[in-house]
Amino acid sequence: MTARLPRLTMPALLCALLFPALVTCAQQPDVLLQAVDGQRWMKGNMHTHSLWSDGDDFPENLAKWYRDKGYQFLVFTDHNTLLQKERWLNTAKRKGSEKAVQRLREQWPAEWIETRGEGEATEIRLKTFDEIFARLAVPQEYLLIQGEEITDRFGKLPVHMCATNTVELLPPTGGESITDVIQQNINAATSRRERTGVKTLVHLNHPNFGYAVTAEQLMKVVGENFFELYNGHPTVHNSGDATHAGTERMWDIMNSFRLQTLQLPLMYGLGTDDGHNYFETAAGKGAQPGRGWVVVLAKSLEPDAIVDALEAGRFYSSSGVSLKSVHYRQGTLRVEVQPEADVQYQIQFIGTNRDFDQTSKPATEKPEEAETLTRVYSDQVGKVLATAVGPVAEYRVTGQELYVRAVVTSSKRHPNPSEAGEFERAWVQPITVSVPAAK
After folding, report:
1. Cα gap 122→275, rounded to integer Å
2. Range of the domain at 335
3. What are 272's strand-pairing partners?
4. Helix, strand counts (H, E) of the chain
5. What is the DSSP letter of 261?
6. Contact of 271 with 75, CB cutoff 8 Å
7. Distance between CA 206 and CA 233 in Å, rounded?
8. Contact by Cβ (8 Å): 384, 349
9. Distances in Å between the alpha carbon of 282 and those of 68, 131, 182, 288, 415?
10. Range name among 38-47, 92-101, 150-159 with the lowest pLDDT average
C-alpha cells in the first residue's frame, strides 16, 4: 500500500496570514555564520530540570555547573512550573535529595541556604529564578533564561514542549489529536507572545519519547518551527529502531513535505540535554548534563537576541563538534570546523530534490499500529548529496534541491553518550535553495 500526502492549502494560508515573516521565500539570500562584525558564538542548553520538578539537584547548583563548563546561557524548563513562587522542599521526603543538599552546602555560603523545621520536618526553600539570576548571571558573559516544559499529552502519549523566555506560565491546552495538542499549545504561546511582547520560542521535545509523535503529525503544525533533533536523555530514542524513524530521518521527511507540499517554513533541529540526573556519573546512564547543546550566533547575550538568532537559523546544534563558520553564497554551501588535534572529520551534505518520490508505505503491516508510526519513504528523501573528509567542505547546489543541510561527524567518541557508540557531531541547519532561473 502506498500513499501520497495530500496537498493541504489551509496550513499554507494560515501560515501566510499569521506568520508572514516565516514563510519560506523562493530566493535564499547569502548566509554568513561566523564570529565577525561584533557577532559571537554562544553555547547554551534549552532543556533543564531541577528540584522544582523532577530533576535531582537545586537550580543554583545546575546554573553554576553550566557556567563553570563554559556555557553562555541556560534555560530552566521545569514541568508546568516557573521558578517564581515560594516553595519549600522536605529533603526527608524527596528521595535521593541528600546528595543535592550536600552539594548545596559545599558550594554555597550558609546565609544563602534558608531552612525551617527540625529533624525529618526540615525544609529548604527553593530559590527563585530572580534570586539565582542575581547571584550567577554575568552581563554579556553568562545568561539565565526563564522557561517551562509545557507537559501535555494525548491519551497516554506524552506531548512535551519547551518554552524559552517566558514570564508567565503557559498551561497545557490539550487537544483532539497529537497534531491538535501541539497546534493548540503553539497557538496559546503565540497569543501570549503577541499580548505581552515577550519573545517566547516554543519547540517540540523528544518526539520519540514514548514514540508519541510522528513526522506526519508534526510537519503539519503551523508556527512550530523547532524540534529536538538530539536530546541527551537515554530513553528518548533519538535513533529510533526497526519500525520507528530516528529524529534525523524525521527531520528530512518533515522539511521535504513542508517545503514542497504544505508550503510551510523549514523545521529547525535543536540539540539539548534534558538533564534530570546530576549525580549519575556512569557513561551513558541517566539524563546527565553536557550531552547536547545549541551554539547561537548573535551580537548580544540577551533573551530576545538569542530567540531572534534561533528564529533566523543563525545557530548549529552539537554533541561535541565546534564549527568555525557556515557560509552559503551564490549557490555554494561551505562548512568549516574548528578542528581538534588528532581528530578527523567527515562532512555530509544532505537534502531532497523537488522531484522526489512522495509515495510512502506504512512502517508496519498491523493497521492498528500504522497510524502511530512515521511512514517509510524512498531514499530520495534526505539523501546524501556529497561527502567530504576533512575540517572544510563545500557543496555546490544544482538548483534542483528543496533544501540542503550538513552534518559533521568526528572520529572522537562522545565521552558520555545518550546512546551507545555515538561519535561527536554537529548539525548545520537546513538552507532553502532558490528555484533556478529560466534560460
Report:
1. 26
2. 10-87+126-432
3. 231
4. 9, 22
5. T
6. no
7. 9
8. yes
9. 21, 32, 35, 9, 10
10. 92-101
pTM of the model: 0.93
Q: How far apart are CA 38 and CA 30, in angstroms?
A: 18
Please give the grid coordinates belonging to residue 256. Answer: 521535504
Q: Tell me, yes or no, whether 270 lies in a domain.
A: yes
Q: How many domains does the chain have?
A: 1
**Residue located via cell numbers 547543546:** 293
In a domain, 225, yes or no: yes
Lowest mean pLDDT among 5-9, 259-263, 344-348, 362-366: 5-9
In a domain, 34, yes or no: yes
What average pLDDT does the structure give for the chain?
93
Instruction: Answer whether residue 102 is part of any domain.
Output: no
Instruction: Write down the residue that cell numbers 553562555 correspond to.
Output: 72
Going by C-beta distance under 8 Å and a sequence separation of 6 or more, which residues neighbour residue 27? 434
CB 367 within 8 A of CB 436: no
**Which residues lie closer than 8 Å to 60 by C-beta, 6 or more apart?**
104, 108, 112, 127, 132, 135, 136
Q: Which ranges of 272-328 would DSSP assign to H, the alpha helix?
A: 303-311
Cβ-based neighbour number of residue 243 at 10 Å? 16
Position 248 pLDDT exceeds 70: yes
C-alpha cell recorded at residue 152: 501535555
Amino acid at 175: G
CATH number, residue 295: 3.20.20.140
Burial of 2 (0-12, 13-18, 19+ CB in 10 A): exposed
User: Residue 104, SS3?
Assistant: helix
Residues of the chain above pLDDT 90, percent: 90
Rg, the chain, Cα only: 22
DSSP 436: P
pLDDT tens per residue across span 223-244: 999 999 999 999 999 999 999 9
Model pLDDT for residues 393-434, shown as the tens digit of each residue: 999 999 999 999 999 999 999 999 999 999 999 999 999 998
C-alpha atoms less than 13 angstroms from C-alpha of 230 in its C-beta half-sphere: 27
- Rounded to an integer, what distance in angstroms lies between the CA atom of residue 200 and that of residue 145? 11
Amino acid at 364: T
How many Å apart are CA 431 and CA 267, to the nearest integer?
10
H or E segment to which residue 423 belongs: strand 423-432
Please name the residues in contact with 362: beta carbons below 8 A apart, sequence gap of 6 or more. 1, 370, 373, 375, 376
